[in-house]
């Protein structure tokens, strides 16, 4: 069976068969029920920072997709790396909470910020940064597909209309998410 190199949310890569990828997606897609997990029980999987983004250090990462929303627009991922410096491009909106370690992020204007345990950050899709981690860094990331303002407004208006007439949205959100993901220019 042919193996393919897949790039998942938060930049982690895995070589898998198509069947394995669909199995992973199906297993991690959130139903409309509440999902919880203890981070101490999560087995992280190996990945790597893309070679072309690496500046110095060890490119190996470990991560795990914890949950994907029912409409496939949002993911929750735990991610960690060791001592490394790299460039990073955010393909999705990403908010996260630093669990341990520290990172020094330099934005496109050359301003450096330190992130440590308990710090929260938000990076809109399209943001380019440079990161430096002196030892290790672990975060829980909340990723969301980014929509243009008119599409986002239209989706919110559609869902509000459905709620007003006693119906629930969802299928339209999924179709819009798929349309956005398939029309994006890969970087």
Question: What can you tell me about this protein's structure?
Answer:
Helices cover 21% and strands 40% of the residues. The two termini are 28 Å apart. The protein is built from three helices and 13 strands. The chain is globular, with a radius of gyration of 18 Å. With 187 residues, the chain is an alpha+beta fold.
Write the layout of secondary structure elements.
Elements lengths: L3 E4 L5 E4 L1 H11 L16 E4 L5 E4 L2 E9 L5 E8 L2 E6 L3 E9 L1 E4 L5 E4 L4 E4 L4 E6 L3 E8 L4 H16 L6 H13 L4
Antiparallel strand pairs: 1-2, 3-5, 4-7, 5-6, 6-13, 7-12, 8-11, 8-13, 9-10, 9-12
* SSE class: alpha+beta
Q: Number of domains in the coordinates?
A: 2
Rounded to the nearest angstrom, the distance between the terminal CA atoms is 28 Å
Strand content: 35-45%
User: Low-confidence parts lasting 5 or more residues at pLDDT below 50?
Assistant: 1-15
| Total beta strands | 13
Please state the CA-atom Rg, rounded to the nearest Å.
18 Å
CATH fold title of the largest domain: Jelly Rolls
Biggest sheet overview: 6 strands, antiparallel
Strand order of the largest sheet: 3-5-6-13-8-11
Helical proportion? Answer: 10-25%
Total DSSP helices? 3
Shape category: globular
CATH architecture descriptor of the largest domain:
Sandwich
Class of the largest domain, according to the CATH hierarchy?
Answer: Mainly Beta
| Element-level helix/strand string | EEHEEEEEEEEEEEHH
Mean pLDDT: 80
What are the main properties of this structure?
187 residues; alpha+beta; Jelly Rolls; 5-stranded antiparallel beta sheet
Quick overview:
Helix content is 21%, strand content 40%. The protein has 3 helices and 13 strands; from the N terminus they run ββαβββββββββββαα. The two termini are 28 Å apart.
């Amino acid at each position: 069976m042919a193996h393919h190199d897949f790039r998942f949310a938060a930049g982690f890569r895995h070589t898998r068969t198509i069947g394995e990828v669909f199995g992973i997606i199906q297993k991690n897609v959130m139903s409309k029920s509440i999902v919880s997990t203890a981070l101490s029980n999560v087995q992280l999987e190996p990945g790597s920072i893309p070679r072309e983004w690496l500046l110095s250090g060890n490119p190996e990462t470990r991560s795990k997709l914890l949950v994907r929303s029912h409409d496939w627009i949002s993911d929750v991922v735990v991610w960690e790396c060791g001592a490394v410096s790299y460039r990073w491009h955010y393909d999705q909106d990403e908010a996260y909470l630093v669990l341990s370690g520290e990172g020094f992020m330099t934005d496109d204007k050359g301003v450096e910020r330190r992130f440590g345990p308990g710090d929260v950050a938000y990076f809109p899709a399209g943001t380019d940064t440079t990161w430096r981690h002196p030892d290790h860094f672990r975060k829980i990331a909340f990723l969301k597909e980014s929509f243009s303002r008119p599409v986002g407004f239209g989706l919110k208006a559609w869902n509000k209309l459905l709620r007003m007439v006693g119906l629930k949205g969802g299928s339209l959100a999924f179709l819009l998410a798929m349309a956005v993901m398939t029309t994006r220019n890969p970087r």
